[in-house]
User: Which sequence fits this backbone?
């Protein structure tokens, strides 16, 4: 069975966009031994169980278990809220946007398949959370608290707030059944709390980091609750994993080839910005999810030898055709510092015809008889061509359709691409030391024990000088 994904690298090649901005055959050939080494390194990390994301699609017992839990939740609750952030939220959002009705929460329960509405606030903004609360009937709301570390300050704070509200309103016995905690099997405060309070739990394997966890219980529970076929999702991811990991050469491995081209684009052609531009609203939040994956994995100060390298491409998201009217001018004529990855689909679920109407206005009649699908495809083709003719590097991922299977495959492809890229940069793509510094100051300011020195550093930091402040 075909996976249904085509990755087109033509727009990155010198044959198409010239040698100043495109990768030449010589540059590509020179990289090949490093691609082979990167593949070997990923195999080794997997064998030594330092990375676990490649094995997630094969845990079918977990998928069965999650499907059963999801069915129980669907039968009892109207609303499902994910309390998670970063890697514990973005994958959930991406799956819902890709695979559910675009107005899932707005249409009737019957129309959306008799499943709950889904909310993933992904922030601690008090106005937004209080606003969300205004829409919820707590008696009919289920909360999935997700944190790999089990200690993320934002998640613990929201959890403390909502748990108290529910326990007061419904009493501990009933309220407890409104929560499921997804966290590390052993470590962290959430795991300890779940044991003391008796909350139901799902595990996140210790060797799967947040941004690589969408195909674990992190993404699967909310997906299954909302009616997405998680077995199909995993089967697509497994097919992609096998195709890449057993490929006979780098050029037969789309994740490795993509990592190679993007690495060269950055290091040899100075393309410091990586733009993902879907031409399907359903794929929009995959670009958001990928933004975290690429940024946190590859934005690093040190390589594995401990040398300072300050590397990483800045990932941005864009949306076709919307951003043709907002960003494209910059992509076409601004600095030559970007590489664009298009995402698109061969098929939409709907076809909208443009009828013959207002015939007195001859200037618009060329549209009559066409479809919005044709117009979208035409604009996509035209944008790609215009960018390539302006020597702007582009590549394109095309899905045969947007289904759980192709989306599962796409997520695996992009995760593996990122992991390979980490090897080419010779960095650890699986940690995020840069996020820690800010977190420690926040802990200090919130009075966490052991972080008193950090709090002091903040209070002693230079005060803003009044001559550089304009306050009206
Ligand atoms: O990729 C990562 O590890 C991070 O972005 C985390 O997902 C994010 O910080 C949330 O962490 P946690 O799941 O531990 O609450």
Assistant:
């Amino acid at each position: 069975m075909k996976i249904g994904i085509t990755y087109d690298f033509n727009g990155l090649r010198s044959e198409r966009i010239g040698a100043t901005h495109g990768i030449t055959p010589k540059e590509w050939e020179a990289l090949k031994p490093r691609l082979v080494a990167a593949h070997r390194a990923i195999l080794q990390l997997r064998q030594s169980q330092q990375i676990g994301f490649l094995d997630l699609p094969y845990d079918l017992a977990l998928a069965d278990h999650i499907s059963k839990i999801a069915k129980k939740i669907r039968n009892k609750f109207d609303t499902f809220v994910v309390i998670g952030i970063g890697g514990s939220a973005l994958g959930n959002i991406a799956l819902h946007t890709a695979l559910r009705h675009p107005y899932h929460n707005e249409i009737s329960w019957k129309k959306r398949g008799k499943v709950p509405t889904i909310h993933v606030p992904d922030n601690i903004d008090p106005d937004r959370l209080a606003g969300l609360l205004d829409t919820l009937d707590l008696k009919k709301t289920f909360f999935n608290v997700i944190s790999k570390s089990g200690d993320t300050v934002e998640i613990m704070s929201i959890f403390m707030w909502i748990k108290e509200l529910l326990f007061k309103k419904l009493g501990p016995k009933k309220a407890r059944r409104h929560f499921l905690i997804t966290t590390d099997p052993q470590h962290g405060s959430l795991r300890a709390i779940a044991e003391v309070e008796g909350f139901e739990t799902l595990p996140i394997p210790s060797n799967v980091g947040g941004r690589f966890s969408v195909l674990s219980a992190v993404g699967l529970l909310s997906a299954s609750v909302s009616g997405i076929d998680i077995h199909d999702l995993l089967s697509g991811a497994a097919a992609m994993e096998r195709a890449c990991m057993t490929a006979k050469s780098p050029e037969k491995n789309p994740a490795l080839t993509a990592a190679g081209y993007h690495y060269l684009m950055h290091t040899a052609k100075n393309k410091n910005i990586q733009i993902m531009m879907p031409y399907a609203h359903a794929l929009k939040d995959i670009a958001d999810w990928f933004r975290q994956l690429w940024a946190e994995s590859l934005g690093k100060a040190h390589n594995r030898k401990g040398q300072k390298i300050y590397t990483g491409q800045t990932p941005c998201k864009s949306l076709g055709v919307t951003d043709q009217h907002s960003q494209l001018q910059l992509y076409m004529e601004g600095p030559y510092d970007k590489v664009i990855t298009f995402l698109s689909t061969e098929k939409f679920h709907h076809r909208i015809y443009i009828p013959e109407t207002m015939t007195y206005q001859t200037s618009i009649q060329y549209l009559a008889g066409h479809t919005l699908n044709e117009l979208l495809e035409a604009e996509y083709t035209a944008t790609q061509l215009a960018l390539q003719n302006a020597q702007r590097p582009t590549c394109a991922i095309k899905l045969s359709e947007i289904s759980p299977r192709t989306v599962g495959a796409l997520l695996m492809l992009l995760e593996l691409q990122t992991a390979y890229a980490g090897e080419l940069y010779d960095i650890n793509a699986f940690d995020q030391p840069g996020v820690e510094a800010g977190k420690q100051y926040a802990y200090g300011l919130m009075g966490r024990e052991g972080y008193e020195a950090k709090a002091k550093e903040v209070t002693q930091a230079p005060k803003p000088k009044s001559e550089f402040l304009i306050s009206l």
Q: What stands out?
A: The longest helix spans residues 25-47. The mean pLDDT is 97. The pocket of 5-phosphoarabinonic acid is lined by residues 85-88, 147-149, 152, 155, 209-211, 296, 432 (CB under 6 Å). The two ends are 65 Å apart (CA to CA).
